[in-house]
Amino acid sequence: MASLRGLSRQARGLPLPQLARSPYAVGPPSRCASSQAAAESPSALHDLENSTLTRQQLSEEEKKQFRPWKRAADRKGSLPSSNYQYHPPKYNRGPLHPIQSPPSSDPVARDFVPGPFNHPRLKQTYTTTIAPDLMTLAYMHVPPGTPKKEPAQRLRGWDGSSPYHKNRALRGPRGGAALPLIERDITFTNIPAIREITVASYVPVAVQDPDHLLVARTVLLAMTGTTPEITKTKSNVVQWALRKGERAGVKATVYGNDAYEFLDRCVHLVFPRIRDYMGIKASTGDSSGNLSFGLTPEEIKLFPEVEANYWLYPPKMIPGARIFIKTTATSDRQARLLLQSFGVPFYGKIRN
After folding, report:
1. Running along the chain, 352 residues long, what does each successive block of 10 average in pLDDT?
2. Region Disordered: start and end of each range (predicted)?
3. Is there a contact between 254 and 120 (Cβ–Cβ < 8 Å)?
4. DSSP state of 156
5. Strands 247-255 and 194-202
């Protein structure tokens, strides 16, 4: 068979008697498998590497003299690492620099993230159905030639009663409130999507009993699949005997496909099983496209990851959680429209 593989494709199609009468002689293979063929051509094994089985064993004196660590120490110069391993630069020094970072899709890149290894059902629904529907629902027809409206003044000016008011920057809103984002029209370039979801649990009882903090961290790890980080209190609370800097909570953040899978479990597995569940308050939001809602300990138990191993958690130590959904929308109205298309219910008075 080895000799037949060495022939051309046309020669393989000839019958065996015709191959025997061929004027071209087929020599012995370069590597022989049997001992008889190796005896006939002893030079055929010269290209093989010497294995540890055929190598002659070292004597006791040679073993004593064999010191690889001393040979490495006596070596004057070290081997150049750049010839064996490529390290991308830590800083990009401009597009004209001779050394450029590899693209993020390259496994050598510093910002390389493997994956995605799955395609969530909710994200597939968003790509195929929800995103086109959002563009249709939010479409505002503007006839050609219509003049653009100037945006309203969001910052407060100065009355000019003092000479120091001249060339001074405009002031923010009264009360020190932060300016909300300006709502942009939904186009094919800025369709709202989920950016990340943060699950936070505040356990003030953990100051007296650290086991509550351990249980809360285990529950959030099972719910999100991400190792939660421990949060500390930012101020003193006398009623709860809390001091600033004490460990009294945990939080975990999921991104990308994990965020869509977490919302999918909430919409299709947790919310329908909550008794007399009205939904999320329509007035929630920070005016910048981020919504939040809370779940009680009884509702946390309905997550399939917690329910499957419910006997692992002490029933009275399972905490509640606050879930923050951060989207790429620029207003609460757009974020609410996105979550409603995913199946999240809302109730109450809507606040724009």
Report:
1. 50 49 44 47 47 67 80 71 69 89 88 84 93 89 87 85 90 80 87 96 88 93 93 84 86 94 95 92 90 94 92 90 95 93 90 64
2. 1-120
3. no
4. B
5. antiparallel
* Residue ranges with strand state E in the chain: 194-202, 229-232, 247-255, 280-281, 290-295, 321-327, 346-347
Q: 3-state DSSP call for residue 52?
A: coil
Residues 81 and 99: their CA atoms lie apart, in Å, by: 17
| Residues forming a β-bridge with 251 | 200, 229
**DSSP letter for each residue of 335-351:** HHHHHHHHT--EES---
Using alpha carbons only, what angle is made at residue 165 by residues 161 and 169, rounded to the nearest 5 degrees?
145
Phi/psi for 61 (5° steps) reads -70, -40
pLDDT of residue 270: 95
Alpha-carbon span 281 to 347, nearest angstrom: 5
Angle between helices 211-224 and 256-265 (to 10 degrees): 100
Buried b vs exposed e over 185-210: b needs ≥16 C-beta within 10 Å? ebeeeebbbbeebbbbbbbbbbbeee
DSSP letters of 172-240?
--GGGPPPPPPPPPP-TT----EEEEEEEEE-GGGGT-THHHHHHHHHHHHHHSS--EEEE-SS-BTTT
Distance, C-alpha 211 to centroid of its chain: 30
Structure tokens at 306: 């917690």
Alpha-carbon gap, residue 56 to 156, rounded angstroms: 90
Residue type at 271? F
Q: Report residue 55 as tokens.
A: 């190598």
pTM above 0.90, yes or no: no
pLDDT of residue 25: 43
* C-alpha atoms less than 13 angstroms from C-alpha of 120 in its C-beta half-sphere: 15
Domains of the chain: 194-347 (3.30.1440.10)
Q: Cis peptide before 116, with omega less than 30 degrees from 0?
A: yes
